[in-house]
TrEMBL record:
Cited PANTHER family: N-ACETYLNEURAMINATE 9-O-ACETYLTRANSFERASE, PROTEIN ALTERED XYLOGLUCAN 9
Signal peptide: none
Organism: Brassica carinata
Keyword Transmembrane helix set for record: yes
Name of the protein described by the UniProt record: Pmr5/Cas1p GDSL/SGNH-like acyl-esterase family protein
Classification lineage: Eukaryota, Viridiplantae, Streptophyta, Embryophyta, Tracheophyta
């Protein structure tokens, strides 16, 4: 932290005063008088040199800024650390699923929180949010709107009806907070890629993009290598949109926050068609999961997108949380939304 000039001044003082002190000790018969003079000179030098050195507060502030940065990065890595408390319902129609972040020291230090309607409205005020993908993305969009509008509100009744029209897009504006949410039916990776490219061509960009795919490709294309290739194409276009931090610390690119919805664990025996059971086997699922990692589209692999780890949520929630082996209880998608919101707080340097 000390500049070269500071070290030069210290070296000069050392060369000047140490020989003088040694000579004075041996030559002076009045050692107390000598020490008094040496102390006076030392204090005078320190007073005059003080302005040239950083203050303790400056040093602490500098160190703190580094610590805060590392803390934010660490919290992004921990935001998916969730535990589940799943209890079967008496009538065996599904389960009651509760979740929370694990109580480890790292996770507790991040102070993750389940946001309420007021918090979410404040965080997303004036934002344009896009959720794109297959049915998993549709459930994420539903959970997010449930937080913004209130899950039991009259408005949510019409939202569910419109949002779940088969294989269609949906758009809504929440006038109270000026938030726009677009759901884009984009079940294939090429659909997501086309969507990203369209933003660049129009030079009009959402504030938050939440996307995910894989299940349709697994069922209808059934080629994990092609899935990985499509993801790499998508990554290259996404990287041209998201902010990039240079070595000098400056940030380039647009201030977009982008997330990836992980594929759920598939319970093969519960899938509702023979075609799904055959083409979406455990072996194929793992091949697709491996291709996702190798594409390096995720932040944890050096890519641009923050993972919403639906895979771990569904694995830990278990078979009791699904009726068809593919779509899970609403609590799973609510957890994904809260993970996204907490990551958004960290990424945008906001507090509530």
């Amino acid at each position: 932290m000390l500049g070269a000039i500071h070290f030069g001044v210290l070296a000069a003082c050392f060369v000047l005063f140490v020989p003088m002190a040694m000579a004075g000790w041996h030559l002076s018969r009045h050692k107390m008088l000598f020490f008094s003079g040496a102390l006076f000179i030392s204090l005078a030098v320190c007073v005059h040199l003080t302005p040239y050195f950083p203050s303790v507060s400056d040093i602490v502030a500098s160190v703190s800024s580094v610590v805060v940065y590392d803390h934010r990065v660490s919290c992004i890595n921990e935001v998916n650390q969730i535990v589940w408390d799943v209890k079967p319902r008496p009538n065996r129609n599904g389960s009651s699923s509760n979740w929370d972040w694990v109580k480890s020291r790292k996770v507790l230090s991040c102070e993750f929180q389940k946001l309420d309607k007021f918090d979410v409205s404040e965080l997303l005020n004036g934002s344009w949010v896009v959720v794109a993908g297959d049915s998993q993305a549709r459930f994420v969009a539903l959970s997010l709107l449930g937080l913004v509008l209130g899950s039991g509100s009259e408005a949510m009744g019409s939202v569910k009806e419109e949002l779940f029209k088969r294989h269609s897009d949906y758009s809504v504006v929440v006038k109270e907070i000026g938030m726009k949410l677009d759901f884009v039916w984009a079940p294939y990776e090429r659909d997501l890629d086309g969507l990203v490219v369209s933003y660049k061509k129009r030079n009009k960009f959402p504030d938050v993009v939440i996307m995910g795919s894989g299940l349709w490709h697994m069922l209808h294309v059934n080629n994990a290598s092609d899935f990985g290739f499509q993801l790499k194409e998508l990554r290259s276009h996404v990287e041209s949109l998201v902010p990039v931090t240079t070595k000098g610390g400056s940030v380039t690119g647009r201030s977009m926050h982008m997330f990836w919805i992980g594929m759920p664990v598939l319970i093969n025996g519960m899938l509702n068609t023979e075609e799904k059971k055959e083409r979406m086997s455990d072996t194929v699922w793992h091949e697709y999961d491996r291709s996702l990692g190798e594409s390096k589209i995720l932040r944890q692999m050096g890519g641009p997108l923050i993972l919403l780890d639906v895979q771990s949520f569904t694995w830990n929630c278990g078979p009791q949380c699904t009726l068809d082996g593919m779509h899970y209880d609403s609590a799973v998608y609510e957890a994904a939304v809260h993970v996204m919101l907490n990551a958004l707080l960290i990424e945008s340097h906001q507090t509530l």
